[in-house]
Amino acid sequence: MPKVKLPRKSTAIDMTAMCDVAFLLLSFFILVAKFKPPENLTVTTPTSVSTKVAPEKDVVMITIDKEGKVYFSVSDVNKSQKTEIINSINSAKNLGLTDPEKASFANNPASYIGTPFSQLKSYLSKDAEELKKIVLPGIPVKDSTNNELIEWMRAAASAFQGGKMNIVVRGDDAAKYPSFQGVINAFKKNDQMKFQIVTNPVAVPKGTELFKINEATGTKGSTE
Amino acid sequence: MAEMDTSGGGGHKKGPGVKKGKKLSTRIDLTPMVDLGFLLITFFIFTTTMSQPTAMRLFLPKDVDKPEEQNKVKSSAVLTIMLGKNDLVYYYEGDDPTKLQSSNYKAIRDVIIDKKKRTDPKDFVVVLKPTQDASYKNTVNILDEMTIDAVKRYAMVDISAPEYQLITATEAANGVK
Lengths: 224, 177
Fold this sequence. Notes:
The structure holds 2 protein chains of 2 kinds.
Chain A: H1 16-32, E1 47-48, E2 59-64, E3 70-74, H2 79-93, H3 99-106, E4 112-113, H4 117-124, H5 128-133, H6 149-159, E5 166-171, H7 177-189, E6 194-201, H8 209-217
Parallel strand pairs in A: 1-6, 2-5, 5-6
Antiparallel strand pairs in A: 2-3, 3-4
Chain B: H1 31-47, E1 54-59, E2 78-83, E3 88-93, E4 101-104, H2 108-118, E5 125-130, H3 136-148, E6 154-156, H4 161-174
Parallel strand pairs in B: 2-5, 5-6
Antiparallel strand pairs in B: 2-3, 3-4
């Protein structure tokens, strides 16, 4: 029987194309990735089934750290509101802040307030290097007669008047409830009844009511 | 692509005494490079936090001082959940706090669903009372639980002193530190 000769083919594949794809993907992911801005306050947020992305503009953020200390900050894009807030606090509380001290809050990106009014002047006069070293006491909120966050929220509400203000609470898992309660009370005193809580998204547990609703409507998570 | 034409001069014959220079192949094995590429991709994908933080919306009710302006609820349709320390919850139905039972964040879902089935949907209310020992995580978890179980009406209320005493007594009896 004459054998049919099959031409022997090389098993070596040209890897060039694959290499191109790999590095193309790599560069794509690196370029697309958004870097986390350095955060001075590290907070582990709780989880929720909410899928609504946290706002980034016009944000008034209240941070509660793991010891329950409360900090107040405004998103960087809202410089004019920041200036207005610090001005109105200054005049309401007679703090006698100088212009550079005001500017250190208003113009400094990622600036936050974590001191009672009495220490605000000395806090704002410090530069960034000094600030890293000191431990902030947080804004007093737990005592209902001396909830200084009320003043801050009032100043923020008037600064954002006419526009939209997103109140966002970013709390640490380990913070205790009284701090959160103090923050809520400060909102209520200013008739700010709507706010948002920053969370990490998790999937809706299977078999629950929301899961069934989502199955029926074809949505994921909760938009509320 | 990876190889280059190195044949040079095409068909130019050298004399018999001229030694032929050994032709090295310029073909490189790209497999390790591909490996490295994909390794880096996987590394970056795993290390990046994929998810952006999300926000959960919460609407607070207005505080009303006058009792006649407050919302009335049928006491039989109320489920009160109190958040204690060490990730434990205590709940009771109706308006008798002494009937309180302890539970945890996993088991409370069945309690809520069970109560929801037994009550008229338009009366059903869950009252949440975090104690000072509850953590922020507990509070957010229970609010999230309301969303998960599709509880339409719920309220977050400050705990009363007798209820808090009951919880501390129960905790002491159960050996919760």
